[in-house]
C-alpha cells in the first residue's frame, strides 16, 4: 500500500487552473492577431477609398476645366464670326461682295451628310422578332423621351414603352442603351447626345455647340436620297404631280409645291436665351419662350400648371368644354381639372394583365364629355363612362398597338389607328366595328398608322403612317380618295384645320406641312390633286405632334428637340419657341374653349400653359 502511495506521488500532474489559463492565453493571442489584421484591413480600405475619392475629384476637375475651355472656345469662335461678318459688311458697304446672312463660318461650312436616324439608309430598324414590313410605329420611350431607369421596356409610339422583343425605332432601345439620333437622350432620357452618339456637356447645351446643321430644303437631314423616276404632270401653283395610280387602286398621289414655299425658322432653335433681348423672350423658373425677331410679337405665353406623373406622358387631350384634361401614361389614364390643376380621377382597368407595362397611347373625350376613349399597347380600345368610372365597352379587332383615336363630330363614331396598318371606325353605342380602312397600296416600307383625324364635317378620314404617306378616305363609302406623298420620313401627326380646307402634318423629317385640300374641303367633293401650300422648317429634331387652335389662327407643334413652336398658318412663319420640358414633347393639345394648351413629355410631366394676345399683363 505504501508502494502504491509512493508511486502516485512520483507522477507530477499540472493543476487544472493552469491549463485553462494557457488556453485562454492562446485564444487571446489569436484574437489580438485577428484584431490587428482587421485593423490593418480597415486602414487599407480607408486609404483605398481616399485614393479613389482623390482620383474622382481630379477627374471632375479635369471635366470642369474642359467644360470651361469649350465654353471659352465657343465664345471666342462666336466673337470671331461676328468680327468677320462685320468686316464683310463693311467691305460690302465699300462696294465689295455682299455679306452672308448668317455667321460666316457656318455659311462657309461644306454640306455634310448627317448620320442616319436609326437603321440603314436612315430608316427605322426592323423589329427584332418580325420580318420587314410588319413593324410598328416608333415609341417615345426611346425616340420620344426617357423612361425612369427602373423600367426595362423599349420605347413605343406616343411616349409609351414597348415590351421587350418589340421593334425599336430610330435605332434606339429604351432605356439603358440609347445612343440615338442628333439631339437625342441617353438612358432614362437624362443625358443629351450629339450627332455621333457622344454625351453633350451642360456647357455645350447652353452655348449651342451641339446644334445640328440646318438640313437642306425638302430633305430630312440625311443627305441626298435618290427618288424613283416617274412621269410627272404640271399641277396647280407650278407644282409637280406624281402620276396617278391605276384606277383599280382608286387613291391618288398628290402634287408637291416648289421649294419657294419652304419656310425656315430654325434661327429660334439656334438662339441663346441668355443673349436674347428682353423684349423677345419670356422666362419662368424652369421654362422660357423666345419670340421671332422677324415677326411682330402677337402672343404672350404663361405657365399655368405642372402635372407630375410616374411614367412617360404619352398623350394629352382636353374635353370639349375645356374644363378637363386627360393624360395617358403607364396603366392609367388620369383626368385633371384645368382650372385648379387637381387630379379628378384615375382610370385603370382592373382586368388588364398585371405583369409588365401597359401604356395608354391615345385618349379622346366624346363631344358631350360623357365618355373617354383610351387606346393601349394591348391592342384594346376602352370606352369609359366618366361619371361612373366604369368601362362601357372594350373594342377588340386591331392586331397591334393602338396609337391614335378621334371622335366623329356628331359623337356617334370612334376612329382608331394602329400599327397593324389599318384604320377602323366603331359605333359608340354598340361597340361594333363599322368600317375597316386598309392600306392596300403599301410599298416596300412599313405602313403602320401613327395618327388619325376626322375632318370637321365628318366626311373625311385622314391617317398618317410610317411609310411617309398621308391617306384620305371617304367616310360614307370607305373608299380611298388620295395618297399624299411629300414628306421625306415617317409622318407622325395629322390634324385638320377648323374650316376643313387644310390638313396639317408633322414628320420625322423635322418639318411640318400644310396641305390645301381644295374641293375635299367643306363640301367634301372629289378633287384631282391636293397641294402642299408650305413646308415649315424650324424644329431641330422629329416633329411628334401637331394641332390647330380652335380659331385656326395658330398651329402648335411638339418635337423631340424638347421644344414647342407656335406658327402662323397665314404667313407660315413661327411666332415663338417654348422650352419647358426636360425631354421630348410627345403630345400637344389646345383647349377648344379657352386659350390654354397642354404638353405631354418623356420627362414624366404634363404641363398646362396659356396663350393670349400680346401685350398681356406681365
From TrEMBL:
PROSITE patterns registered for this protein in UniProt: WD_REPEATS_1, WD_REPEATS_2, WD_REPEATS_REGION
Domain of life per record: Eukaryota
One Pfam family linked to the record: WD40
Family named by the database record: Belongs to the WD repeat TUP1 family.
Coiled coil: 17-79
GO cellular component terms attached to this protein's record: nucleus; transferase complex
Organism placement in taxonomy: Eukaryota, Fungi, Fungi incertae sedis, Zoopagomycota, Kickxellomycotina
Name of the coding gene: TUP1
Entry's localization field: Nucleus
Keyword annotations of the record: Coiled coil, Nucleus, Repeat, Repressor, Transcription, Transcription regulation, WD repeat
CDD domains documented for this protein: WD40 (cd00200)
Keyword Magnesium: no
Position of the signal peptide: none
WD repeats: 360-394, 395-436, 442-483, 484-517, 536-577, 578-618
Source organism of this protein record: Coemansia erecta
Region (Disordered): 93-272
Principal subcellular localization: nucleus
Residue ranges of every copy of the Transcriptional repressor Tup1 N-terminal domain listed in the record: 19-94
Polar residues: compositionally biased ranges: 242-268
Name of the protein described by the UniProt record: General transcription repressor
InterPro entries: Tscrpt_rep_Tup1_N, WD40/YVTN_repeat-like_dom_sf, WD40_PAC1, WD40_repeat_CS, WD40_repeat_dom_sf, WD40_rpt
Compositional bias segments (type: Low complexity): 102-116
